[in-house]
Structures are given as C-alpha cells and as structure tokens.
Design brief:
12 helices; two-stranded antiparallel sheet; 8-stranded parallel beta sheet; alpha/beta
Length: 338
C-alpha cells in the first residue's frame, strides 16, 4: 500500500481510505467491524466517517456510524489510525443532516457542539482530519475558519478539510485562513470518478497551486462502474436500488448516478478493464489514485465480498494505453453524471 501526504500537513495516509457511510443502516455492526478489520490488515490506515452517517440520513440511526467506528478503534493502537470525520453543514440539494434537528450550519455553536459529540462517539480525544460536510456559503468564512483553528490549537483536531466544496469556496476559505493566520484546509473531499471528471475542470488546478489534496469519494460511481446497474438491473439491497424507490432527494441523487449515459460509459470502461485483465472495480479505483492531486481514494462497501477487487488496486499502476482509452470514452460521452 502506497502512502501520500494530506496537503502540506504532517499526516501521511494509505492511498486507499475506507469509507463508512452505510455502517449502521445498510451494513450491520458485525459486518462493519469485519470490514474495518480486513481493511486494516490489508494495509489501510485511513478511515473516513461523519457525524451525519449512516445514509440515507435518518434521525432513527444518525450517529450510529461514529459509534461503530469508535468501538472498533478501541481494538487498535490509536496512533496507527488516521481518523477522519465531518461536521454537517447546511443542506445543499442532496443531503439533509438529521443532526441538531436539521438546523446544521458551519457557525461557532454548531462546530463546537459537533466536535464534542464526535469525540464522545468515537471514543478518542483527537480527530486526525476534521472536515466540513457540505459548504456554508452564507456564513462568513472568517467565522468558520477561526473556530476550526481553535480546535487545532486545542489539540482536538490535527488538520482540517472540506467536502463538496466549489473552487470559489475553497479559495475563499484559504484567503480567510491566510488573513487570520489560522489553520487552513489541507484536503477537499469531492465526488470524482471515471463517470464524474468535473473536478479536473477547475478544482484540480486549485489543489495543485494551493497545496490541497483531493480525497475523492464514489470512485466506483456508486456501483455503476461495477456494471451492476447495467441492462436495467436493480440489485436487491444496493444503495441506489433503494434510493430509486424512495422518491424525493434520494431518488434524484440516484438518477444522477444511474442513467443511460452513465451506464453506457461504465460498460465501455469495463471493456477497457477486461482488455487489461482487470475487474472493473479494480480498474476504477486504480484510475482514481493515478492523479497527482489525489492523496487517498475513499472506497466503500456494504459486504465483505466487495473488498478483494478494491484491495487488488493497492499497488496497481494503469498503463498509458488504458489511460488513453479512458480519455477517449470521456470525450465520446461527456459528463455522464451531468
């Protein structure tokens, strides 16, 4: 397992990160703990969660993921684990956190309450990477970055990151930190995959110039790049199978991932993977890692049998022929997720 630095910080992580957003809902506790153990044994030292998990967001189980991760954390040397979690920002289109009765924001009170609750649930006295989960463009970045800086100075948080942020928001936060002499974001956690390359349009340049690392989520396109939704399939128990039946925000989100263009491109990428004797999941994860602005690719599973194709990408470097073939598909089917 290769390791990379988070931004310009002192923290070095495995270039695969295990995400946990289904732990406590779609994935029961016993299975979740086994997935965490197997990931650790495979050489992964970086684990990502959030106060608003598991998904889909629901008050009946919100916070359960952090509790499961906290239970597992007690079985490992704390300094061997790089642990990331998030404070819920306000809702923007897809995600409405049930925390604090849905009245979440990135102001002083919300951040202070959130970090203490996360520390308690995780059973630790510090968080390695603390991230803002969805931006809050209507709250002054000076306030957000100032209170986050206080957490770093207090030793409750080591480094900071943002999630689902825009180029404007990332630059605005960096400018606020520079003006205040405060801690800055070292990471950004945004959607990035073979089916969603929008990060390369602008944000990749910000990362390169400002020393910020992308830690991409959904490298397998929510399972679409595994081709499990091809030919109209709706696998029982799969996240987007469930979301498509839910209506509202969840159905709208699922249709962004599962649509004619995304399925068509996924099938072409799977054919390229087959030409190189690779599982499409292995291929998609390896492609995600093969970018200079990426520090660690966040993967997620709900079953143990989904782990092996991911682990197979650990030391894999795709040849130029594969990368060129991918680019040809991306030009033929542009922005399949919109």
């Amino acid at each position: 397992m290769k390791h990379r630095r988070l931004g310009t910080s002192a923290i070095v992580v495995s270039d695969i990160c295990m995400g946990t957003m289904t732990f406590g809902s779609q994935t029961d506790e016993a299975t979740s703990l086994r997935i965490l153990d197997r990931s650790y044994d495979a050489g992964i030292n970086f684990f990502d969660t959030a106060e608003g998990y598991p998904v889909p967001p629901d008050a009946k189980w919100v916070g359960r993921t952090e509790e499961i991760v906290g239970k597992w954390l007690k079985t490992k040397p704390r300094d061997a684990i790089i642990l990331a979690t998030k404070v819920s920002g306000p809702s923007h289109v897809w995600f409405k956190s049930p925390k604090r009765s849905g009245m979440t924001a990135l102001d002083r009170r919300n951040i202070m309450v959130s970090v203490e609750d996360s520390l308690t649930k995780l059973g630790t006295d510090y968080i390695d990477l603390y991230q803002t989960h969805w931006p809050d463009h209507d709250t002054a970045y000076d306030e957000t970055m100032e209170v986050l800086d206080e957490l770093v100075r207090a030793g409750k948080v080591r480094v900071l990151g943002c999630s689902n942020e825009t180029s404007w928001g990332l630059m605005k936060s960096i400018a606020a930190s520079d003006k205040l002499g405060a801690a800055r974001y070292h990471t950004i956690q945004n959607n990035f995959s073979l089916n969603n390359r929008r990060f390369e349009d602008e944000l990749a340049q910000v990362c390169r110039k400002e020393g910020v690392s992308l830690i991409p989520y959904s490298p397998i396109g929510g399972g679409v790049l595994a081709t499990k939704y091809s030919n109209g399939a709706r696998p029982e128990g799969a996240r987007f199978s469930n979301y498509l039946a839910m209506g509202g925000r969840q159905e709208a989100m699922a249709r962004r991932f599962v649509n004619d263009k995304s399925i068509s491109s996924a099938e072409r990428f799977a054919a390229i993977a087959a030409d190189h004797d690779l599982d499409p999941v292995t291929f998609a994860v390896a492609w995600s890692k093969q970018h200079d602005f990426v520090a660690s690719t966040i993967v997620g599973v709900s079953r143990e049998d989904q782990l092996d194709p991911i682990f197979a990408a650990a030391d894999l470097v795709l040849p130029d022929t594969a990368m060129k073939a991918v680019n040809a598909v991306s030009r033929a089917i542009m922005y399949p997720m919109g």
